[in-house]
Amino acid sequence: MSRAIITAGIDDALHFTETQRKEIIAAYPPHEREARVRGVPSLGSGRIFPVTEESITVDHRDIPPHWPRIIGLDFGWTHPSAAVEVCWDRDVDCVYVTKVHRVSEASPITQAAAIRPWGEHIPIAWPRDGRRETLEGAGVPLAEQYRAEGLNMLYEHAQFEDGSKRRGWADGDAHTNGNRTVQGVHPSQRLVGGVSFVSS
Prior knowledge:
Layout: H1 18-27, H2 33-38, H3 53-56, E1 57-58, E2 69-74, E3 81-89, E4 94-103, H4 108-115, E5 124-125, H5 142-148, E6 174-176, E7 179-182, H6 187-192, E8 196-199
Parallel strand pairs: 1-8, 2-5, 4-8
Antiparallel strand pairs: 2-3, 3-4, 6-7
């Protein structure tokens, strides 16, 4: 049996007038418009913040060496693992996502080889499931497997100053050598407020 995906967008709904189409499109949140207007499937992997990619993407720039940097790493297997490098311009309180890595079904050895060139000195924040011991790692916790591959994993998993783990987003208060580097606000607040950018 073969399968196919057939998409339909609002332009295919000929029973709407042009004015009605514009009203319908305007009613959708910006981050949902592509999926709802053009029928682009997202199936659990679409945008989660109410901003468009175009509104937060900036041209690549050289990052000054004095800007604090941190890498956030989320573990996964069939659900992809992901890593992002974040740099903070303290002078204007602007956060830049400068590097990203996403892969499914890759070992800590493979992932560490992809992330290590970003800078072995950059601290890496990780979620609490990094304490989990894996059968594939001979009972060694995930975070320790990455540390053994030369990554600068923080001593403990990422959490807020009060020790909570507020599920659903993991930026919290990141630390570099004990100094606060990223303010503990929800990422969508920084994105909508115009103080976070993704380097292309």
